């Protein structure tokens, strides 16, 4: 595939190298020529100086032949405008934009433009390590109504069947993380020591699920 990247910062340059190593052709755009110093000396892709939302610049990058467009500059406005130009003007279906403001990211998700809210994602990852208790969202659908969350089941659920946990908490287990690998459980699968349980649930139901798991653990204790 041919892929156009706007932004030659750490993320953009890393993506360019990975994609090129996978055999794809890459064009990378940045308003500063100095940014291209982040690219390795053997980088074979095109380097275009300019703004990714400028139609002439994006055309020079080969957007008309592109299968995907990625906007990862340091500006939310630049990223979303260039993503819309790529999709609405040049008809690129596979478009992703990095948005620092999570509230704006949710709006653009609903408009059909996939976004990565960097700051919110990083903060959530840290919080899950600092405050492991309870169900913490790993992913939300564009409407925010459905979430994928880690559920701290406690050691008292070790040895219990997944079906028992689902029935007791009134939720659905999506998968287990076991020794660094993901496992899609059967209903008679047994939770083992060290397993991380991931559930799919309504966002407004997480508090109830947490309470149900905590109440059961308290009864057994």
From TrEMBL:
It comes from Actinomadura litoris. This is Trk system potassium uptake protein TrkA. The lineage of its organism: Bacteria, Bacillati, Actinomycetota, Actinomycetes, Streptosporangiales. Pfam families: TrkA_C (PF02080), TrkA_N (PF02254). GO terms for molecular function: potassium ion transmembrane transporter activity. GO terms for cellular component: plasma membrane. Keywords: Ion transport, NAD, Potassium, Potassium transport, Transport. InterPro entries: K_uptake_TrkA, NAD(P)-bd_dom_sf, RCK_C, RCK_C_sf, RCK_N, Trk_Ktr_HKT_K-transport. Residues 1-118 form the RCK N-terminal domain. Residues 133-215 form the RCK C-terminal domain.
